[in-house]
Design goal:
- By secondary structure, the protein is mostly helical.
- 48% of the residues lie in helices and 3% in strands.
- The chain contains 5 helices and 2 strands.
- The radius of gyration is 17 Å and the shape is elongated.
Length: 141
């Protein structure tokens, strides 16, 4: 049966839904390359660019909730993985654990140190993505 009252989702609604799904899906790691990863994150970037629009404001609480979950997952990088994105775009300043292909790509672009491994960060804790308090040597990786 067709639901004639149903409507198509707007781009904003699709981006938020995809971002929520993406965050949930990378809890156990990401097993694709850097190009796929940054492409998957483009939905979050699009939401940020339109943050002041009424349609994005209407769903912003969902973005904030997904952001909190994503921050908890991410391991830090030394630099943005997507151009010169500011640190306020935290989604381009970290990566989820568990992906050797993604980690190899990040090492080749010098976003993480060649000796950097996720087991080290798990064992000793990751520096804060916002200040690296207690890790003065982190910026030298």
């Amino acid at each position: 049966m067709t639901d004639f009252d149903a409507r198509d989702l707007s781009d904003i609604e699709r981006w938020v839904s995809f971002y929520e799904w993406f965050v949930d899906s990378v809890r156990d790691g990401y097993d694709m390359c850097i190009h796929e990863y940054t492409n998957d994150l483009s939905c979050r970037d699009q939401l940020q660019r339109r943050r002041d629009t009424p349609e994005v404001q209407a769903v912003w609480a969902r973005v904030v909730a997904a952001d909190a979950a994503f921050r908890a997952i991410l391991l830090p990088t030394k630099r943005s993985i997507c151009g010169d994105s500011p640190k306020s775009h935290f989604w381009f300043w970290g990566y989820p654990d568990g992906g050797p292909e993604l980690e190899a790509d990040l090492k080749s672009m010098e976003a993480i140190a060649r000796w950097h491994t996720t087991w080290f960060l798990r064992a000793f804790g990751a520096p804060s993505m916002f200040g690296n308090a207690g890790w003065p040597w982190y910026n030298f990786w």
